[in-house]
Amino acid sequence: MPNTAISQSVATGCLFVLAAPSGAGKTSLVNALLDSEPGIRLSVSYTTRPPRPGEEDGIHYHFVDDARFQELRAAGEFLEDAQVYGHWYATSAAWIKQQVDAGQDVLLEIDWQGAAQVRALFPDSVQIFVLPPSLATLRERLEKRGQDTPEVITRRLASVQEEFRHYVDFDYVIINQTFAHAVDDLAAVVRAARLRAPRQRWRQARLLRELMTASVT
Fold first, then answer.
1. What is the full DSSP assignment across 64-87?
2. In terms of Cα–Cα distance, which of 10, 23, 18, 9 is closest to 138?
3. Quick one: which of 58, 37, 62 has its CA closest to 49?
4. pLDDT of 82-134, one tens digit each?
5. How far apart are the first and last CA of the chain?
6. From CA 76, how far away is CA 28, in angstroms rounded?
7. Whole-angstrom Cα distance, residue 45 to residue 126?
8. Is 79 part of any domain?
9. How far is it, in rounded angstroms, from Cα 123 to Cα 59?
10. Is the residue at 143 inside a domain?
């Protein structure tokens, strides 16, 4: 892990951080956002967990074994890393910094622990937390997903209340009760962040220079 903060000017790309407990609909929201809001690049995380049905290496995650993960971690490759339900997850530090410094908007889909590490290194990141409307709804979604055993679902539900407590650390909180409304809320956050004056000063530099220097006749 890098031990020094990564300097980021607000006059660069936006770094969006989306966190949520498993089953809250985070991945579906991310996919809908990428379809509706052009210009956002999704960061592909590293993980030691095995691929789920339909997942592809390099697209959904970079799937690596524990030994390779620890090699990359020791080399300072990761912006953040966290162990969740017995598996490691991490984000490439070099790739994120390169993209954001070049003005590219980037979206990270991570857990609250990873979000805290990103917040320390990129204090200007836009952090969004997604909550389900109820624990009953969360259980129902996990069961319908069909990816976990009943024992795993029970373990996940036992830990989510601790996750819920960290919503106060985020800039925005979205309740995913009606999916279409949650997508609209997420898109609104993205658009607002892109329109902040410091970023517009960089993105619209030519227009603003012309407007402020043009002669008035």
1. --HHHHHHHHHTT-EEEEEEETTE
2. 23
3. 62
4. 888 889 999 888 888 888 988 899 999 988 888 998 898 889 999 999 999 99
5. 58
6. 31
7. 18
8. no
9. 27
10. yes
Structural domain that includes position 145:
15-43+105-212
CB 82 within 8 A of CB 111: yes
What is the tally of helices (H) and strands (E) in the chain?
A: 9, 9
Task: Supply the CATH number for residue 24's domain.
Answer: 3.40.50.300
In whole angstroms, how far apart are CA 50 and each of 32, 87, 212? 25, 9, 55
Question: Tokens in use for 205?
Answer: 């530099």
How many angstroms separate the CA atoms of 91 and 73, rounded?
10
Q: How many domains does the chain have?
A: 1
What mean pLDDT do residues 163-191 have? 95
pTM: 0.78
Q: Is position 129 within any domain? A: yes
The number of beta carbons lying within 10 Å of the beta carbon of residue 140 is 13
CA proximity to 67, closest of 55, 57, 75? 75
Look at residue 25 and tell me if it is in a domain. Answer: yes
